[in-house]
């Protein structure tokens, strides 16, 4: 240790000016913390090593395996699940600055849900002027198998196949199949190998009365290894002879949701200086193919389409209703020698996404490559908004949908049924058991896409629909003693008025159309969707009451927290249907890959014997033997994500400052530590450098603080801002203090730079 008088060197520190960051700080308010913690639980801190994902990174429909609703096993996954995964990553990206998960999630969406070319061979043999063979749908399941009608002139032409193949250089379809078997529980594997996972399967195919409980799960790749003589094909259609074939069905609202979530990820990343254009262009491509959802099932002309032989086959785009219908499907021969495609005539308001239509038609990063893709989505946005307005009840909630094919067979409805562009009102589009629009979740799903459109684009028509709907939400939703109570089921009466576009802004119409609340309760995922929609419209209109309700609901949802997220115990009286009959025509016999015999009279559990090995089977069995309904506490990926995203949006858009109870600490957006006297000196802690970040320059400005320490921003990157070693530990280890400010260096040695304060040596701060 040198004597103070032997100090040799005189150096002075010069202060460098740090550029003010253009990006927002990482959020650390209570809503962000909730969302980030929830993300970390669901994804295992981003490792995807958690109960929500399979070892192959399939996001499960639910953590729990014994689960029957639309999927008939919890470890199935659906395109909906993947679309929510993109949302989860988008919000986590905005809250933490790490957007890499968005690309990861999209890559698995593509890998698991979009069949690659070896899984959809023969598309180049597809003939767009003869897309498919007509078969009627039947209201009753015993109308199946349905006869294929081989007759020219019934089915119209497919006007988009050619431009899609030109734009993307091949004939494959870039769309998600709707359901996969994550653990290969059914045993079909891929391409009939019986073992690969995840595995493309399908369930429903037999009309509106076929609930999940009546489905016969079967492989998408029909190699006739299982099932009966013709595989499973002759359960669905009557053909002259049956060829080995593959077929996939899209659930278009999920593809649209994936596009919406990718858009928010892209937008937020762009604000933070991160370029997600590769995800954007994949989303645009998905949107291009998603146009198949805009077509009548058999490409017939839209409007007053009665009689499968009388109603004209479409030409050009007169078979487009421009709405997002319930499905579209495509298939072909295993040998790659033929292929077919269909759209869907049935539309539901809960499936619409005028936001996706707006993204694909106005946002250049998301512009579809095909010649008319963007234009079609522009038309679609208008048409979708009109549909919502047409179906808005005087109460504000939104009625079912419209179809171009009454009863799925181009039948003629009764004369009091009103129309929208010549399509008929249907209070329960597509499925009847239970009626598709009873479930309140459809309100949140559809309207969240109308109200986020209003928020982003300011479209007044979207605003009008949302404002009327928000009133209904406020009247039917409350928080009482920490419990959330809202409409869980709705009943429907009457018909909407005949639609005229010029009616859009008129009020007091639809006097005979009514939606009434038939049951109240708490469905966490649904209410989170609903309050998300409420947030967008309330933010746009500066409606404090709406924001307050949304924040109150999310605060109350904290009361439903458990180790895996948020959940409520559900008594499942409907699980008596495990013992219910699955319709199989008499005489049909076959065996599935679980080894079960399928024949007339079998039950749901008979054809799924592996459920008897499930850890939760005992309580279902007890119920079937006369005990109480079994109770389950489900963690559904989609519902968890709705909650995470809703909390995230409160943080990202600063809604807690409207008075939410939790949001009293650090505010989300603004630099609340931007005064210069608060600037930090010293290096930064290893808890920050360990994560791959650098220390900021000296005198950095703290823009965000978390458990790891203080963060600044330099050149668009996060950096650690002070809080680590202030001066060399080699000096403090000898019992000296750090100097309180930068000053003259009186001495240098291997331990570092020495200064003098109050007559003693001190360690010169490292960042001088
Ligand atoms: C995630 O990180 C937290 C906090 O560091 C830790 O407690 C938890 O065990 C981690 N979980 C997983 C699955 O890695
Ligand atoms: C984002 O990256 C793409 C290609 O990777 C590039 O073409 C585009 O210009 C970039 N956008 C911005 C805003 O940097
Ligand atoms: C569903 O809606 C129908 C039609 O209004 C109604 O009769 C029925 O009670 C509703 N069911 C439930 C569970 O809400
Ligand atoms: C009902 O439908 C008409 C047109 O069919 C529309 O103008 C009206 O605004 C809708 N809703 C209400 C609540 O009046
Ligand atoms: C400092 O932060 C406040 C909000 O906390 C903001 O209004 C102000 O503009 C900031 N000042 C500077 C110079 O960045
Ligand atoms: C504090 O940091 C800001 C921004 O990084 C910088 O402009 C300012 O000069 C610093 N103040 C001092 C006293 O170093
Ligand atoms: C500036 O920041 C420091 C440290 O965070 C704080 O103690 C001080 O009160 C702030 N001063 C002003 C005027 O905001």
Automatic annotation (TrEMBL):
One MF annotation (Gene Ontology) recorded for this entry: cellulase activity
Domain of life: Eukaryota
Any one of the GO BP annotations: cellulose catabolic process
Gene3D superfamilies listed in its UniProt record: 1.50.10.10, Cellulose docking domain, dockering, Endo-1,4-beta-glucanase f. Domain 2, Endo-1,4-beta-glucanase f. Domain 3
InterPro entries linked: 6-hairpin_glycosidase_sf, 6hp_glycosidase-like_sf, CBM10/Dockerin_dom, Dockerin_dom_fun_sf, Endo-1-4-beta-glucanase_dom2, Endoglucanase_F_dom3, Glyco_hydro_48F
Domain CBM10 residues, every copy: 683-722, 726-765
Signal peptide from the UniProt entry: 1-19
Keywords: Carbohydrate metabolism, Cellulose degradation, Glycosidase, Hydrolase, Polysaccharide degradation, Repeat, Signal
Keyword Transferase among record annotations: no
Protein name, UniProt field: Cellulase Cel48A
